[in-house]
Amino acid sequence: MKNKTPESDPPKEFIEGVHYYFENGLMVLTERFLLERGYCCGNGCRHCPYPKDAEKDQRRKSSSSSRTDPAD
Question: pTM, whole model, 2 decimals?
């Protein structure tokens, strides 16, 4: 089975009211869309179905990869 990654194909259709909705002018992704996407992005999405630990791990990975080593 292929692992889902940010590079994986997104869902074929992106349907308002099913995959997202608008609230106060902002697009909010639904739990269904996030499950179909298959991974936690670490942005603290309102309807994130993944454990909070996954969110923290993803944030830690992205912040450590953007840091520069002062010794460089």
Answer: 0.61
